[in-house]
Design brief:
Shape: globular
Structural class: alpha/beta
Oligomer: single chain
Number of domains: 2
Radius of gyration: 20 Å
Strand order of the largest sheet: 10-9-6-7-8-11
Bound molecules: 5'-O-[(R)-(carboxyoxy)(hydroxy)phosphoryl]adenosine, zinc ion
Number of helices: 10
CATH topology of the largest domain: Nucleotidyltransferase, domain 5
Helix content: 25-40%
Strand content: 15-25%
CATH class of the largest domain: Alpha Beta
Order of helices and strands: EEEHHEHEHEEEHHHHEHEHE
């Protein structure tokens, strides 16, 4: 079995995954959202202190598996350096005391593996990764070979939802609240411009759209109806931008399997647009169960199984945290 640890942001999570059949035997996540909500966003030092309490707490529940463990998988990049350290320190302590090797896991690769919980991988696969920190279109050939087909020039998709939510006075994390408000809103009320629609560049940009929303909010008295209409108009434009670029990327390419991962892949409006796209392209759409879209250790453990089988162990002295992702995907 593999014990996996995730602490790259504000979720403390540990999982146990059986190697031979990838079965998820244990998974627990303690979210810190309510603690950070009063500050309107994640406070890294507070998050680190909360991990230092929550992770040992969860570890108590998995002690019964210790004798059957073969490795410790831990997220060591990318993320907040002070919070990544909490998971890595625990991995090192377990490695020494239980005499187990460590598998360093890239958090973004972990998100990709949220599609393969308790099942085999289905590579090659094209992936849209939409999280709080990243917006990427990837062609994943296998564990080691990932090509980056497009990425964001500024804010990420999830981040733009969080920033719009903050401007509308919603609690952190605001992404899901914007989606809820959008359900009852008129998406035609505000005519926001779709970013980069005339640019041939295969890239994303969300900072301009965020500013358009800010100007609209400044002009209006933001009652509940206006909040819904702004949310709906923003969500429609944000997703339209993603879809325009995705259609451009795959204009002359065949797709067999298309996956969507990351916290913002829980957005049902986005999922519906991608379903239409995949139907047109005769591609199979793969989504993770909703509870495993956001950060969790189950995806890190599943990725850890492949890392284990490929012998991706590291020596303890070489295990460092990297706040930015190193060599995750190759630009093509
Ligand atoms: O993957 P994740 O849990 O954390 C990172 O690795 O960043 O993604 C969190 C992001 C946040 O920006 C959050 O607002 C966004 O995903 N998110 C959503 C929805 N649920 C979460 N964005 C739009 N619609 C949603 N339903
Ligand atoms: Zn994430």
């Amino acid at each position: 079995m593999i014990l996996s640890i995730e602490s790259s942001c504000d979720d403390s999570s540990i999982a146990i995954t059986r190697i031979k059949d990838k079965k998820l035997l244990f998974h627990k996540k303690i979210s810190q959202e309510s603690e950070h909500a009063k500050y309107g966003g994640v406070v890294p030092e507070l998050a680190a202190r909360l991990h230092a309490v929550a992770l040992p707490n969860i570890l108590e529940s998995v002690k019964k598996y210790f004798s059957e463990l073969k490795a410790i998988a831990v997220t060591n990049e990318p993320g907040l350096s002070v919070t990544l350290v909490e998971g890595v320190v625990m991995a090192k302590a377990l490695s020494v005391s239980l005499k187990l090797p460590i598998l360093p896991i890239n958090h973004l690769k972990g998100h990709i593996y949220s599609l393969f919980l308790e099942q085999d991988t289905n590579f090659p696969m094209d992936i849209l990764l939409v999280s709080g920190g990243h917006t990427q279109v990837l062609h994943v050939k296998n564990y080691d070979e990932i090509e980056m087909l497009a990425t964001t020039l500024d804010d990420s998709f999830g981040e733009s939802f969080d920033k719009v939510a903050k401007m509308l006075g919603f609690e952190y994390p605001g992404g899901p609240i914007v989606e809820t408000y959008a359900k009852h809103g008129d998406s035609e009320r505000f005519n926001f411009t779709v970013p980069m629609s005339n640019s041939p560049k295969l890239a994303f940009s969300y900072s301009g759209l965020k500013n358009q929303v800010r100007l609209a909010i400044e002009k209006e008295t933001t009652d509940e109806k206006i909040k819904s209409d702004i949310s709906a108009s923003f969500q429609k434009t944000a997703v339209k931008h993603l879809m325009q670029k995705i259609k451009k990327i795959y204009k002359d390419k065949k797709i067999e399997n298309f996956g969507i991962v990351g916290g913002a892949s829980a957005n049902l409006y986005l999922r519906a647009r991608l379903e239409e796209f995949c139907k047109d392209k005769k591609a199979n759409l793969h989504v993770a169960p909703l509870e495993f879209c956001s950060d969790n250790a189950a995806m890190i453990g599943r990725c850890g199984v492949d890392a284990f089988n490929l012998g991706k162990f590291t020596n303890m002295d070489n295990l460092a945290v990297h706040p930015r992702s190193s060599e995750f995907a190759k630009n093509v």
